[in-house]
Each structure stands twice: as C-alpha cells, then as structure tokens.
Specification:
four-stranded antiparallel β-sheet; 7 helices; 10 strands; DNA-binding
DNA sequence: AAAACACCCTGCCTGC
DNA sequence: TGCAGGCAGGGTGTTT
C-alpha cells in the first residue's frame, strides 16, 4: 500500500527515465478505475501527446508527471495496488495494466492496478485538479511543530484519523500513522485537539518513520514495488504494524502490541507506551 | 462545519 | 481438494 515513502521511491526511480521523453500515444484498457469512474483518455491525450515529460514530482501520495511547460501534466494515484513502471514496448504487459503512455524511442510508461483503487487524470494546469488543491502540507517539507499544533487545535476526531486525513497532512497512510503515534507515545484514539501539546513529538515521530522508510526504499507487505519492480526493505523495521501479540520493542516487551479496529481499519499500538 | 460511514475492487488467506 | 467468506484500506461522496 503505497504511502509517502513508497511514492517518493517510485518518483526518484521514474524521474531519470522519463525526463525529456516525448509521448506518442495513450492507451486505456476501457476498465473504470477509482470508484468505478471512466478514465478521461481524451484528456490524457490532449495534454501529453507530442510533448515531453519535463519532471516527475510527488505531492502527498500523488505522482505528478509534468508535461511540457505551463504546469500541465498527468497525476497518478496508486491506490492500494497500483504500479507505475517504464518498460520496453516489447516486454509483456503485466496483468491489470490499465493505462499506457507510449514514448518515442520504444519504451512505455505503464500503470497497472489489480484492485483499481488507483487513478490517472489529466490536469491543465495540474494544480487545478480538485484532489491536489485540497491537500495539506507535506510533513517532510513546509510543516513545523507550531504549524502542526495549529492544525490539530479544536479537532475532536482521533489523532490517528487526523493523520490519515490528507487535507490536514499529506502523505501518511495506515502503516506510518500507527508507527509515528507509537514512536511519539500517543494513544491513537486521543482527540487530535487534546494531543496538540505533543505536536512536536508527533512531528518528530512522523519524520523519523517516513525518512527511515524512504532510506529503506519503502515497505512491501505484498504488492508494492518501485520503478524497477523491486520491493522495499522497510517491513522488518516496523515496530507495531502487523505485529499484534508480539512484545513491544519500545518498552522492552513489558507489554504486547495490541490491535483495534475502527471503521474497518486496523490500528496497532502499545497500551503501555501509548496511554489515553 | 465537522464527523461518520458506505462504496469501489481483487487476491490472498483461513476455515469448513 | 475446493470453495465460501473475511480481510486489506486508499479517496470520494453522502448522510448525520
């Protein structure tokens, strides 16, 4: 499940392969993607064909493929199982390939997504896409403890839900929310507003967890691969996620990692290190 | 206005 | 051995 570190790893791998490459065509499988919506393949063609990719960037969990000049481009969200890779046109397409950009010189930029939670959209300009306009600040760039505390103030929702809300802070998903709260010693069910006094520790935990995961090229539970098709190494570095019943490493095993379920989503935490 | 929830999807895993 | 059912949870849109 790609979150900020996985998307960052993919972007770093894609950028050198795509910069300066001209798009010659766009293909769509015809299958609807996120929330059963059709892909605007004509919009993708209008914005990309005949132009070259200028840069590849990340905004939260979105991949931004900038095309030509003027801020136009393509945004890609990988959902749960999305993969974005540059491969030779002659190489067999992976199952569940749904969008393909053909590039001058024979390569293809391919988007595959088994569960079709992902999304590919054209933006002219990119920043006009509503999903991008509503994103909160990036925790690794442009957010400090005071800014985080201000955003938490008055929020009654649980601090974990706060971290997952992309309009509050962009890029954090279920795995790194659990890990960051554990590092910060904050119980996931604490109302965000009441935890704002610990915003500095929380931001510290978020950054430690995200930077460590980027250094290890992301967490592969099952589906995630980078632009080279390689999994990441961060799974073994996770302290609580997926470790229900194991001794908590933070308190030296004095308590075991617990799991709770809210809204269908698992939360992993240590009841001893993370008090209400 | 903020919060809660239903919805979209397929593959893997468990239990009978 | 096979098959049904549960689970994984991104973002969006609707309801409370």
């Amino acid at each position: 499940m790609p979150e900020l570190p996985e998307v960052e790893t993919i972007v770093r791998g894609l950028a050198p392969r795509l910069r300066g490459r001209r798009v010659t065509g766009v293909w769509w499988s015809g299958r609807p993607l996120h929330l059963a919506r059709p892909v605007d393949v004509e919009g993708l063609r209008a914005v990309s064909i005949g132009r070259a990719f200028a840069d590849v960037r990340r905004l939260g969990k979105y991949i931004l493929l900038e095309v030509g000049r003027g801020g136009a481009g393509v945004s890609v969200h990988l959902g749960m199982t999305g993969r974005l890779r540059v491969q030779a046109a002659g190489e067999a397409r992976a199952p569940h390939t749904h969008v393909v950009f053909t590039l001058a010189g024979g390569d293809e930029l391919r988007f595959a997504d088994a569960r079709r939670f992902g999304w590919v959209a054209a933006g002219d300009p990119l920043r006009a896409l509503p999903a991008l306009a509503e994103l909160g600040p990036d925790p690794l760039d442009g957010l400090d403890a005071a800014g985080l505390a201000a955003r938490m103030e008055g929020v009654r929702a649980p601090v974990k839900a706060f971290l997952l809300d992309q309009s509050r802070v962009a890029g954090i998903g279920n795995i790194y929310a659990c890990e960051a709260l554990h590092l910060a010693g904050i119980h996931p069910a604490t109302p965000a507003g009441r935890a704002r006094g610990r915003a500095a520790a929380l931001l510290d935990g978020v950054r430690t967890v995200l930077e460590g995961a980027i250094a290890r090229r992301g967490t592969t539970l099952r589906d995630y691969v980078d632009a080279d098709g390689m999994g990441g190494d961060n799974f073994s570095a996770l302290l609580v996620y997926g470790r229900e019943g194991e001794p908590c490493p933070r308190c030296g095993g004095k308590a075991k990692v617990k799991r709770s379920v809210d809204g269908g989503r698992s939360t992993f935490f240590c009841g001893r290190c993370q008090k209400r």
